[in-house]
Amino acid sequence: MQSFDVVVIGAGAAGLFCAGVAGQRGLKVLVLDHSPKVAEKVRISGGGRANFTNRDIDVRQPHKHFVGQNPQFCRSALSRYTPADFIALMEKHHIPFHEKHKGQLFCDRSAGDLIDMLLTECEAGGVTRRQPCGVKDIRCTAEGVYELDTDQGQVQARKVVIATGGLSIPAIGATDFGFRVAKQFGLRTVDPRPGLVPLTFDGAGWAPYAGLAGLALPVIIETGLKKDRISFHEDLLFTHRGLSGPAVLQISSYWQPGTPIRINLAPEVDLPAVLADAKQRSRKLLANELAQWVPSRLADAWTAQEPDWQRPVAECSDKALARLAERLSRWELVPTGTEGYKKAEVTLGGVDTRDLSQQTMESKQPGLYFIGEVVDITGWLGGYNFQWAWASAHACGTSL
Ligand SMILES: Cc1cc2nc3c(=O)[nH]c(=O)nc-3n(C[C@H](O)[C@H](O)[C@H](O)COP(=O)(O)OP(=O)(O)OC[C@H]3O[C@@H](n4cnc5c(N)ncnc54)[C@H](O)[C@@H]3O)c2cc1C
């Protein structure tokens, strides 16, 4: 049986980074992954350019950008390995990048640069990588040594790091391995569900909007009530099955099935005021007036819903205009569901942080660590999930 100091399971963002850090600290590290391709999720991330971190992370207030039963858990790791640290690493490897809006940093060329960097860091640490190599069984002996039956023979190590990510995008190798290992060793888990995912709608209520697929516009979207209320000012995209775009992906991580979302489709204008003004001076159809403030396809679809709205604005009653303004600025609708793990960028839930150390990511099962998305910490869209992967991997890799 081959012996290592550490076996890292999962050669994705967190696993490769952790392996490189631990290897460069002198540990004999094996990283293995059942997929034939390395870090495939990193490769497809950020539209192929990997939004690898976000400059706006507020490490003192992680609940602002991270979701989970206890977002405070990520504070320690995030404050010890910051976006500036990862940017410095990118610069050391001469990888060009740029900032898009809201602090989001992307590779200039492709996510392949990021993967090459992670692999170079592993090489610098003398890390052994085996792919494709699945794990059939994992046991802990009475002496606290882990024995793994893998597709390439048996290996043993005193420390095992689970970095197998979430359930999103099974087509590229996502599995529930981490959840199963946690349960095997008696650790608690928070039920998983898709996050950063398009929402779906069906039935008669959706029929007026079914023809709007492809249409995008800036909106304010919100869900929840009172202290649970959360809102985003982002772009909305109509799809064939419902709604997507950054606004909907963000809200999906907070949306509770069966509850409504509310959308202001014209957040930049005071609709009651501009419609009342139009009534005084315009001879145009209401739809044509409305098209100054929302895309014309949307204006047509909305005004087609009531006979009172299908006439010149000057002939519309004050009540009809007020109703239209109210409904456009507070469009309330209940999603039927989500596009599921096939389309979700992340998985909410995961290994319960109550059973993990926030300093080292070691679980209550000594020698067993969990890092990255498999933990019940999920970031907003915009580079937050990768920063959690790097920070949790670094906290773990330096403590092993
Ligand atoms: C389409 C898309 C775009 C995204 N874009 C961004 C972005 O721009 N910015 C951002 O911050 N986040 C983005 N994310 C989220 C981000 O990719 C993940 O949060 C991040 O990759 C998590 O890192 P991880 O190492 O925990 O898991 P992963 O990177 O998913 O790695 C897990 C690894 O474990 C392996 N594995 C799984 N099961 C097993 C098993 N049973 N045995 C062995 N190996 C196994 C998998 O093959 C995989 O290689 C995106 C996600 C998707 C799906």
TrEMBL record:
Cited InterPro entries: BaiN-like, BaiN-like_dom_sf, FAD/NAD-bd_sf, RsdA/BaiN/AoA(So)-like_dom, RsdA/BaiN/AoA(So)_Rossmann
Positions of the RsdA/BaiN/AoA(So)-like insert domain: 193-346
Cofactor: FAD
Alphabetical keyword list: FAD, Flavoprotein
One Pfam family it belongs to: HI0933_like
Domain RsdA/BaiN/AoA(So)-like Rossmann fold-like: 5-398
NCBIfam families: aminoacetone oxidase family FAD-binding enzyme
Record protein name field: NAD(P)/FAD-dependent oxidoreductase
Organism of derivation: Hydrogenophaga bisanensis
